[in-house]
Design brief:
This protein is of the alpha/beta class and 699 residues long. 41% of the residues lie in helices and 17% in strands. The chain has a seven-stranded parallel β-sheet, sandwiched between helices. A hairpin with a 5-residue loop joins strand 2 (65-78) and strand 3 (84-90). The structure holds adenosine-5'-diphosphate and magnesium ion. Residues 302-303, 397, 562 line the site of magnesium ion (MG).
Length: 699
């Protein structure tokens, strides 16, 4: 890329000595996260310009940046085809054309015939041979810098020279001492921190710009390693912190409740479910808190696993709280878990924000008195008024839907409950459940402090959902599909398009679609469900659908999470091109839950952009949640998976989860060794890389 030309006047200004860092500039630095000298030190270039060499004009090749010196043979202002300044220089090896489409009078003087000039810019093939458009011009013969010129990520109104100056200064004052123990540094064969930093800010002349920009240079490896190591270390500390906390051991010496639960089920558990139940069961017997993620694709049967975990806690005399992200889902859990556990003598209570005052008071009393064994609810469960006298286990369903604050709050909950009645603080065990598979590299990094149980198997007898891509223009076809299914006694979902710009518009779309479908199918009951309905209305809509009274349910994405109606085997998603891959997968997971063949129709409006086409293609090609997650990571980066862990800051600035997996492995091993053998280095390293960010990683 060529650097835009700057008028010499500007050049003169920016080369004046540094001004005092006044507060507008400080504010700009802050926007880049630059406050302490140590922040500036690890603000690293995105690319470099090589001003260290003068090349022969004969070596100029299109597409490459070059710096040459030569004598101006000729220059003139041409008026056609448009007004422009052109010049020709020569250094004896060849000629080079220069061209300016905008120019100042003094630029014209700079290239008067006979002058010796130094010229830098990107060469391209012009009509009369090689040329540079808008080259940077200085006087020939001045001293050359002996390092490559760094170009930093910056923000509006903050010039490169200002950044360079500030970073240069911080390199003189900041602590650049080594944070890795000597033997480790030697065995890793990485450069020291100081060397790596110096090289990256000012690479010596002759160093390969390509290697630096592609970040394959050992100095870059060192920085990425440091960053990943810091992350591994904070996760290790979080884990150690957790191990040092106390939790009630839940041995369930009397396993009668679990036996009864198993005996009452109308189906046999899958091997994957059995394994998950065993792993969780073992964790619960320990006297430090479990932090386990139960991860299984939509429909893999996570709820029953949660029921077994609950049974173990309850049999050990401890309460269980299950939290779901939506009222609908909480209610569904209440019905399901109630049906499984209530007959076995478990007191199941439910608590949401929308309960009537009297019901709410009764629920709160049952919880506080300890009568309620299993409490199911929404965020309302973490409100101040809810007191659990003997909380043993907290289960979070669809964990990626919850924010950091809520998770931290939940942790505190257990803390409070116990400090109230004894000196030894106890935390509840924590089980989180998610249908979003975490790709391997993420599991090794951002989620490395969690234990994970994976359910990679669906209950038997499910036929994979058939996915059809149908253009919006063929609406009639879709209507007859719906008609056919409902005739055959089945039910269908109709998901309205996402309107990201406006919630009101989204609502309107749902209402319009409902009216239109009601008119199109006079012999059917068409239901409607959207986020703005009261929870009672939503429940009514959902109940009608679950009981089979409603044939076709028009809904916004409120149904995305967890809804389970086995008789629904057709899903229509309008404007599927507007949804993300993970979301489409979740939506599609609502069908294919009973026997029989299910179909998911992705309606789209062309023409499709490349990204949307890839997404729909992925949906068409696979129903495997892991494969979908992998492609999603490829298309969109890790943000989607992190949910609660996102800090708003860039999570990893230099390392790349996809291409640096070998460095992740190294950093993992090194973190374990450092935790064991070099505790002082651990803190020094974290101080440099994680200032003020540990709390977030622990959430
Ligand atoms: P998810 O993992 O998406 O939360 P659910 O727990 O809602 O899945 O289970 C999906 C459906 O599969 C439910 O109707 C559930 O009763 C049923 N189910 C769960 N386990 C089995 C099994 N082992 N065999 C048959 N059906 C099962
Ligand atoms: Mg579920």
């Amino acid at each position: 890329m060529s650097t835009p030309v700057k008028a010499p006047k500007e050049n003169r200004q920016t080369s004046q000595p540094a001004g005092r860092a006044d507060s507008p500039q400080e504010r700009k630095f802050k926007r880049l996260g630059l406050v302490e000298p140590s922040d500036f030190v690890v603000h690293l270039p995105i690319r470099y310009e090589d001003e260290t060499r003068i090349s022969a004009i004969s070596s100029a090749a299109p597409g490459q940046a070059i710096q040459v010196e030569g004598e101006v043979l000729h220059s003139e202002v041409q008026l056609r085809p448009r007004r422009q300044l052109v010049a020709v220089i020569s250094d004896g090896t060849g000629r080079l054309n220069l061209r300016w489409l905008h120019f100042y009078p003094n630029q014209r003087r700079q290239v008067e015939t006979g002058r010796h000039i130094r010229v830098r810019g990107e060469v391209r093939a012009g009509f009369n041979g090689c040329e540079i458009v808008h080259p940077r011009v200085t006087v020939a013969g001045t001293a050359l810098p002996n390092a490559l010129t760094p170009v930093y990520p910056t923000t509006d109104g903050l010039s490169q020279p200002a950044l360079r100056r500030a970073i240069g200064q911080s390199l003189l004052t900041a602590d650049l001492s080594e944070s890795l123990p000597d033997p480790m540094l030697r065995s890793l064969a990485l450069p020291s921190f100081k060397d790596a930093i110096r090289i990256l800010h000012a690479p010596p002349a002759g160093m390969s710009v390509h290697e630096l920009v592609e970040r394959g240079h050992p100095a870059w490896r060192r920085i990425k390693f440091d960053e990943l190591l810091a992350q591994q270390l904070s996760l290790a500390l979080a884990r150690r912190h957790r191990r040092s906390q106390r939790a009630p051991a839940l041995p369930a010496a009397d396993a009668e409740l679990q036996h009864q639960l198993r005996a009452s089920l109308p189906f046999a558990l899958t091997a994957a479910q059995e394994r998950a139940i065993r792993e969780i069961s073992a964790d619960l017997t320990r006297d430090y808190p479990m932090h386990r993620l139960l991860q299984g694709d939509v429909g893999s049967g996570k709820t029953i696993v949660a029921a077994f975990a609950s049974a173990q806690s309850i049999a050990s005399g401890r309460q269980v709280a299950i939290m779901a992200p939506t009222e609908i889902l909480a209610e569904q859990h209440f019905n399901k878990l109630g049906a499984w556990l209530q007959p076995l003598g478990v007191n199941v209570t439910w608590l949401t924000g929308k309960l009537a005052v009297r019901q709410r008071r009764a629920a709160l009393e049952a919880i506080a008195s300890g009568d309620a064994d299993l409490v199911i609810g929404t965020q309302a469960l973490i409100q101040d008024k809810v007191q659990f006298p003997r909380l043993g286990l907290v289960i979070l369903d669809e964990q990626h839907r919850f924010g950091v604050a809520q998770r931290l709050e939940l942790n505190r909950k257990g803390d409070e409950a116990e400090t109230a009645n004894q000196e030894q603080r106890q935390m509840p065990h924590q089980l989180t459940m998610s249908a979003t598979p975490i790709p391997r590299t993420l599991a090794m990094t951002f989620f490395a402090d969690l234990d994970v149980s994976v359910m990679d198997e669906l209950p038997p007898g499910r036929t994979p959902v058939i996915t059809k891509l149908i253009s919006d223009a063929r609406r009639e076809e879709v209507l007859s599909l719906v008609h056919g299914e409902v005739r055959a006694g089945r039910q269908a979902y109709w998901v309205c398009p996402l309107v990201e710009e406006s919630e009101a518009l989204q609502l309107q779309t749902a209402v319009d679609t409902h009216a239109w479908l009601t008119a199109a199918f006079p012999d059917m009951v068409v239901g409607l469900m959207h986020g703005r309905m009261s929870s009672a209305e939503k429940q009514e809509a959902m109940d009608g659908f679950r009981q089979g009274n409603v044939h076709l349910l028009v809904a916004t994405t409120v149904i995305e999470v967890g809804v389970d109606v086995p008789n629904a085997n057709l899903m229509i998603i309008e404007h599927a091109e507007r949804f993300g891959l993970a979301q489409l997968h979740q939506l599609r997971g609502r069908v294919g839950r009973g026997g029989g063949q299910s179909v998911c129709v992705l309606m789209y409006q062309g023409p499709l952009g490349a990204v949307a086409r890839d997404r729909l293609k992925a949906m068409y090609e696979t129903t495997d949640g892991f494969e979908i997650a992998r492609r999603d990571l490829e298309q969109r980066g890790p943000g989607e998976f992190l949910g609660m862990r996102q800090s708003g800051q860039e999570l990893l600035r230099y390392a790349d989860l996809q291409s640096d997996s070998d460095i992740i492995e190294q950093a993992r091993a090194a973190a374990a060794e450092m935790m064991d053998a070099y505790p002082d280095h651990v803190y020094r390293h974290l101080e440099r890389w994680m200032r003020g960010r540990q709390e977030l990683l622990r959430s």
